[in-house]
Specification:
This protein is an alpha/beta fold. It has 13 helices and 22 strands.
Length: about 500
């Protein structure tokens, strides 16, 4: 468990009503939220993990596994999509190439053969263009498709948590097909599954996309989220695990189904009004057993972890993806920094902002959101995320979309990274593209505009480095490619053949 740090009196920059915190809260303002006359001292770290084993956050090891590196037992997931157009040729001529290497965009051409990019930069000659479908860029921006690192194809745009579980399986599968289609309609060509409301739907959708049967992004599938009965947030979408034997059996079942990831729901959620965001729901022995069972099967582990104690559990036992991380302490921040080459963070900012600003039409006014603690959580989470960015921790977009006030098709995380976290547009785009390739464990094939990479591309009408909000509105995406196949093109490029029926993008 994370040690609670104490501080001398300092002037805090706290813009929320502290009465909305739970009476059991042990949160204290970390140094990045305080005005100091002099730099604070490095916090003391616990020298044991929650199981009583030796723990050194600077050189973290758990049962012989080096936690500064990905567990070598993890399997590189399959992200291939069937390609029936191996001989096709597509060319983008006179585009601004934003390649996601960090280099500034440059004017040039891009050639695609089949499912891969084969040439980037130099002007294409007549022989190379022979037989190609040519898009005249006229200076528009060509960039990689984006990633959503917190994807729920099965979240049903419900106005309540319980509503996620009520749709019959047949309709639920069709809805999930539409949400997968909507992600790619909005330029998201990579999705990292964060939990499936029903056990098999994520796997079925992933398999259907890979077979070429339905349109959608390259995706990694998850099963139902797991939680002890007393820590369950939504009964109808949760696999109960109350013992080491139960969590091992659940993960074995998910592995047999063919998931890529598993999910532990390790802390509360303010909207429940029963299990607060700072409440930790998993005992240490279950987290350790769950991570070991998943890694032994080659699967990655992601966690709903808002509380600091849950964040520290993730770091002490090897969780791979931390969702939210709202109440991170100084001790946990130091531990996270030591593991930044292994761990990813996806805060789901859109959920927090949407719940505070956009939920009133669905019966959840801002006063209610504030009273249950969301304004407080947001005011604490944002400075912590800014501190993570300074320390080089990999933060990815992914907004927990699929609720009534954050419906599918309203994806806006790259914009929020700029307007709320202080990212530059380039930093935000790299997080949304190149880091997606790293997250999907294919950094040499996904997330950049370079020879040899999959042709998962978007042609933007404008320059997102000048206006990052262009990426929040699918109408600004004139062309979308996935696996070298044209998913969408615009009238001004060719006669329209893109059929929007079935999409939830508005």
């Amino acid at each position: 468990m994370a040690a609670v740090q104490s501080h001398p009196p300092m002037q805090a920059e706290l813009r929320f009503n502290p009465q909305f915190g739970p009476s059991t809260s042990r949160w204290v303002p970390p140094k990045w939220m305080l005005k100091h006359a002099s730099p604070p001292s490095t916090p003391r770290h616990p020298n044991q993990n929650g199981l009583g084993d030796a723990w050194d956050p600077k050189r973290p090891v758990f049962r012989g596994v080096d936690l500064t590196k990905p567990d070598p037992r993890l399997k590189v997931p399959n992200v291939e999509i069937a390609c029936e157009h191996e001989e096709s040729v597509i060319a983008f001529v006179d585009v601004q190439i934003l390649d996601s290497t960090g280099a500034q965009p440059y004017r040039g051409d891009v050639l695609i053969n089949g499912k891969r990019i084969v040439k980037v930069g130099p002007k294409l000659d007549a022989k190379e263009l022979e037989g190609a479908r040519v898009f005249q860029g006229n200076g528009r921006t060509l960039m990689s498709g984006m990633v959503d690192a917190h994807t729920h194809f099965t979240w049903t745009n419900s106005g309540s948590l319980d509503g996620l579980a009520t749709m019959p399986v047949e309709e639920h599968t069709l809805f999930s097909m539409r949400s997968a289609r909507t992600f790619i309609d909005c330029g998201y060509t990579m999705c990292f599954g964060a939990a499936s409301a029903k056990t098999r739907i994520d796997v079925v959708i992933r398999n259907s996309i890979q077979a070429g049967d339905i349109p959608g992004p390259r995706s990694l599938a998850n099963g139902q989220e797991m939680a002890p009965r007393e820590g369950c947030l939504v009964a109808g979408i949760t696999k109960y695990v109350d013992s080491i034997e139960e969590i091992q059996a659940a993960i074995a079942e998910f592995a047999e189904l063919g998931v890529d990831n598993v999910k532990l729901s390790m802390s509360g959620e303010e909207i429940t009004e029963t299990i607060r965001a700072e409440d930790t729901t998993f005992p240490d022995e279950l987290v350790a057993a769950g991570v070991e069972a998943a890694h032994a099967a080659g699967l990655r582990v992601c966690s709903h972890a808002r509380s600091d104690e849950a964040i520290m559990q993730c770091l002490q036992y090897g969780v791979d993806m931390i969702y939210h991380a709202s109440f991170i302490s100084e001790a946990s921040m130091h531990a996270l920094e030591a593991q930044k080459d292994r761990v990813f963070v996806a805060p789901a900012l859109a959920w927090l902002y949407g719940t505070l600003e956009d939920a009133e039409a669905f019966g959840y006014p801002p006063t209610k959101a504030e009273s249950v603690g969301y304004a407080r959580e947001l005011a604490i989470a944002v400075p912590g995320l800014k501190e993570m960015m300074k320390r080089g921790i990999r933060i990815l977009p992914g907004g927990d979309y699929g609720f009534a006030w954050t419906p599918h098709g309203t994806y806006r995380d790259p914009e929020l990274f700029v307007t709320k976290l202080g990212y530059t547009p380039m930093q935000s785009i790299i997080a949304a593209t190149a880091l997606g390739g790293e997250l999907l464990m294919h950094p040499e094939e996904l997330g950049k505009v370079q020879p040899g990479f999959f042709a998962d591309l978007i042609l933007v009408d404008g320059n997102p480095l000048d206006d990052i909000s262009l990426l929040s509105h699918h109408e600004n995406l004139d062309v979308i490619l996935i696996n070298g196949r044209i998913h969408k093109s615009h009238d001004k490029d060719h006669p329209a053949f893109y059929e929007n029926k079935g999409s939830m993008a508005k």
